[in-house]
Amino acid sequence: MIGTIMVLAVVVYLVWMFWGRAFHMIGQYKKGGSQFKLSEPLDYEAIYQKLKEGLQYPDNRNLFYDEFGQPSIAGRYGTYTIHTEDTLLTVQAETNGKLNKNMRQTEEVMCLAAYIRKIFEPAAPVNPYQLYKRMRHARRNGLIISVVLIIAAAAYSMAALSPALDDTAKVRNAYLSQYSTTVTVGDAFDNFFGSPKWKAYEEGTQERVDFQGNCTYSGEQVQVRIVFGIYGDTFQVDSVQINGKEAPALISAGLFSAVYGETDSSGGTVSSAE
Fold it and tell me: Torsion over CA of 222, 202, 228 and 173, rounded to 10 degrees?
């Protein structure tokens, strides 16, 4: 349950980081996020001179007049144009690219507008440098957080799976002492049977370990399934099946004897799959 919640949290965060945040930034820009009012109307030449003297935007690559005689600024992610209508000054961005590019441009143009506003209104309640740091660090921090969340979710998933792996080890790394105290169950079974497979599972509240493999019995290739029950720190053989049918006790004993290299007294011949 917790693992599922963590995976969902990762997905939600990634969706926000790469799509939700973009729509949020573009929406703020369209609501006037790069506009402010001047104290009086100014022509483009006066605005250009003010920008030339006082613009402190760190990623200002160039300040110039565009083909329409409007002041323009080349930034990190795009080129932005100053437009005025009476006392309303707007820093315009071209948002006709891909979603992430549009997000970077609209975030930069709103940051740039804050720097420009400070030139004309030093007491404006805005901190351009904080906006700039947030813009520059947002993508890097987002990627770092995404990686951390993904690693955390993967680690939790592995931890959730580890009890099942430990349950198989309770049998594989243990001994059937009536047959051997030096050869583990895992070594004996994996060496004797062909295509050995181990699986841990729960049946109600009972923990079990399932082993399946093939060998030769009375001259025929057969599929063997052995189910172990886990009881605290101990285990026992709960079921032995050959080709899907429960094997009698005598045949089961003969099978285990063959696995551990002892004489088979079951009446049938059991041999390794090799």
Answer: 110
Q: How far is CA 81 from the centre of its chain?
A: 40
Q: How many CB atoms lie within 10 A of CB 84?
A: 16
Q: How far is CA 147 from CA 103, 136, 245, in A?
A: 21, 18, 50
Q: pLDDT-based confidence at 126, cuts 50/70/90?
A: very high
**Contacts made by residues 135-143, CB under 8 angstroms, sequence distance 24+:** 135/107, 135/108, 135/111, 138/21, 138/107, 142/17, 142/21
SS3 category, 179: coil
**Rounded to whole angstroms, how far apart are CA atoms 7 and 200?**
24
59 vs 28, 107, 180, 190, CA distance in Å? 21, 13, 75, 65
Q: What is the dihedral of CA 225, 229, 234, 236, to 10 degrees?
A: -50
DSSP readout, 4-33? Answer: HHHHHHHHHHHHIIIIIHHHHHHHHIIIII
How far CA 19 is from CA of 11, 24, 146, in Å, comes to 12, 9, 14
Listed in sequence order, the residues at least 6 apart from 18 whose beta carbon sits closer than 8 Å to its beta carbon are 100
The reported pTM is 0.51
Say yes or no to pLDDT of 224 above 70.
yes
Q: Which residue has the tokens 């007491």?
A: 123
Mean pLDDT of the region 145-149:
70
* N- to C-terminal Cα separation, the chain: 43
Per the document, the length of the chain is 274
Backbone angles phi, psi at 258, to 5 degrees: -65, -40
Residue 270 has pLDDT above 90, yes or no: no
Which residues are registered as beta bridge partners of 208? 201, 229
The pLDDT score that the predictor gives to residue 134 is: 87
Task: Give Cα 163 to chain centroid, integer Å.
Answer: 22
